[in-house]
Design a protein that fits this description.
The complex is a heterodimer of chains A (120) and B (408). Chain A is α+β, with helices and mostly antiparallel strands and 120 residues long. In chain A, 24% of the residues lie in helices and 32% in strands. In chain B, helix 17 packs antiparallel against helix 18. With 408 residues, chain B is an all-alpha fold. Chain B contains 20 helices and no strands. Classes of the chains: A alpha+beta (120), B mainly alpha (408).
């Protein structure tokens, strides 16, 4: 069973002391490496910050190019404007295993876990 | 239970009892067999609907479980024919002798944990549990919660799709997750109980007694998890509330406050039985929020009069409850006990401290009104009661507040 992890950007990342942020990032990289080695994470990337994003909207059949990201504000965690900070593809037995892995994430990020449609 | 001719009412009662016992077993077995929650539940509903049509006329069969199983299998065959395509799961079921399904152990506990998975919204957990574990029809659930059938149907369809598509597992949680996951199941059962015990909207009228259904489910949970003290705590809590339920409303349907209730009409035997059960649960030495709430209910139920209530003990129990549930609502309840332990002034200070986070909660304002009145601040008390009234849709609660407003 494959799931896409949509990882929200850490809102505190910019305000943390540099040494602390570096230490946290290292723990996240180590975690990611370990999950990848176990075959639980198949792929994934961290993304550049939201201000580098470009949004394309279709309006009246015509593509409109807009500066900036799509905000994730309409979910259970809508106290601040969130953007996607990264993603991963998880390969596990079921949702409980996905939840166990996500709960062991060392960072300060909100997650959306979405099942992937696999076509034979 | 709705009011029909006596014959129909008796049939309805018998049907309810049989469905409760058989529907969950059958769903559980079919989920195990087919590996598809959505499909299994659909087949059981088809079979139940057929039973609803046939049994009132032809009588309840000797082996209702076997009848439902055979019917579910026939329904699977009809679906196969209708679909006109080879569907592996259904054809497996049709081809099977079903001995293994029939001989399967009681899987209803797995079923409950799946229906109450934390990834499902609370209202979906409730609807799904009532339907899959108890065999309530969509129509019955809709009328019990005063919702439209379309709303409930959509809720259930979406939840079942999520179980299948997001691969929510059909098994017991890991031991390290058990306490949290059991908490979800208990919350669903208690919410269902309270919906029947005092509906937050609308009149009681002819609505199905969800309190009765929740009690049955909790009894089942206690039977399926004999070593767990928290389900017993919830069961005791429900029983203590039911033992006092008949004095909660007066002849005109108005809510009667605890201090005004006729304690002579409380079911003393039921109270003694329930508290005895709680004592045994507590001996497990694993306290939890439901055992503590049951202990608080026991303090009230065992007091010979309102004046004899052991408020010190209740206050301490709320302190313990706060260690499990550090919420504003628990603090509000503790403030009520505080009033009798330390007086209305510190209790009001405590209520004011949480007023912001509960500003849309009717009982916050009703409690404030009571405390302000005890302090002689009548005008402010009236304002608070007005706020409470605006936030209350339950007719029994409304008339209680209105009578308070008109009496001073």
């Amino acid at each position: 069973m494959k799931y896409m992890l949509l990882i929200a950007a850490d809102p505190a990342a910019g305000s943390r002391p540099e040494a602390q942020q570096k230490e946290l990032s290292e723990r996240i990289f180590a975690w990611w490496g370990a999950q990848t080695e176990k075959g639980k994470i198949l792929a994934g990337h961290q993304l550049q910050p939201a201000h580098t994003a470009t949004t394309v909207k279709v309006k009246g059949g015509k593509a409109q190019v807009v500066d900036g990201p799509v905000y994730l504000t309409d979910g259970p965690f809508n106290e601040s404007k969130e953007t996607v900070g990264g993603y991963g593809i998880l390969d596990v037995a079921d949702l409980d295993e996905a939840l166990t892995i996500v709960k062991s994430w060392p960072g300060n990020n909100n997650f959306e876990i979405r099942p992937v449609i696999e076509r034979a | 239970m709705t009011q029909h001719a006596p014959g129909r009412a008796a049939v309805d009662a018998a049907l309810t009892a049989v469905f409760r016992e058989e529907a969950g077993r059958l769903t559980a077995a079919l989920v195990r067999f087919l590996g598809d929650f959505d499909l299994a539940e659909e087949l059981v509903q088809d079979a139940l609907l057929e039973a609803l049509q046939r049994w009132p006329v032809g009588g309840i069969p000797d082996k209702p479980g076997a009848w439902l199983l055979v019917t579910a299998r026939r329904k699977a065959l009809e679906r196969l024919r209708r679909a006109g395509v080879y569907e592996k799961k259904l054809s497996l079921l049709v081809a099977s002798e079903l001995h293994e399904v029939e001989g399967e152990a009681d899987d209803r506990l797995e079923l409950m944990f799946t229906c109450c998975h934390p990834s499902l919204a609370r209202e979906a957990q409730v609807a799904l549990t009532l339907r899959a574990v108890m065999g309530l029809t969509t129509q019955q659930i809709a009328s019990a919660f005063l919702l439209t059938e379309a709303t409930v149907a959509q809720r259930i369809v979406r939840a079942k799709q999520k179980i299948v598509r997001a691969a929510i597992p059909y098994r017991l949680p890991d031991p390290n997750e058990m306490a949290e996951r059991l908490g979800e199941v208990l919350a669903v059962l208690y919410l269902t109980f309270n919906e029947g015990h005092i509906a937050s909207t609308g009149g009681r009228g002819e609505r199905r007694d969800l309190a009765e259904d929740a009690l049955w489910l909790t009894n089942l949970l206690v039977r399926l998890m004999p070593g767990e003290p928290e389900p017993i705590g919830l069961l005791v809590l429900m029983r203590l509330q039911l033992a006092r339920a008949m004095t909660r409303f007066d002849m005109t349907g108005r809510l009667v406050l605890l201090q005004d209730q006729d304690r002579g009409r409380w079911d003393r035997v039921a109270i003694a039985e329930a508290t005895g059960l709680l004592d045994r649960a507590i001996q497990a030495g694993r306290p939890g929020p439901y055992q503590i709430q049951a202990a608080i209910a026991a303090c009230h139920a065992e007091a010979g009069s309102f004046e004899e209530t052991d408020w010190e003990q209740i206050f301490l129990l709320y302190n313990r409850l706060l260690t499990f549930w550090p919420t504003a609502v628990v603090r509000l309840n503790r403030a009520v006990a505080m009033q009798y332990v330390s007086g209305p002034a510190p209790a009001l200070a405590e209520v004011d401290a949480i007023a912001e986070s509960l500003r849309n909660y009717r009982l916050l304002h009703a409690t404030r009104a009571q405390l302000l009145r005890a302090l002689g601040r009548t005008n402010e008390a009236r304002d608070a009661d007005q706020r409470a009234l605006l936030l209350t849709s339950n007719p029994a609660e409304r008339s209680l507040i209105q009578s308070r407003l008109s009496s001073n």
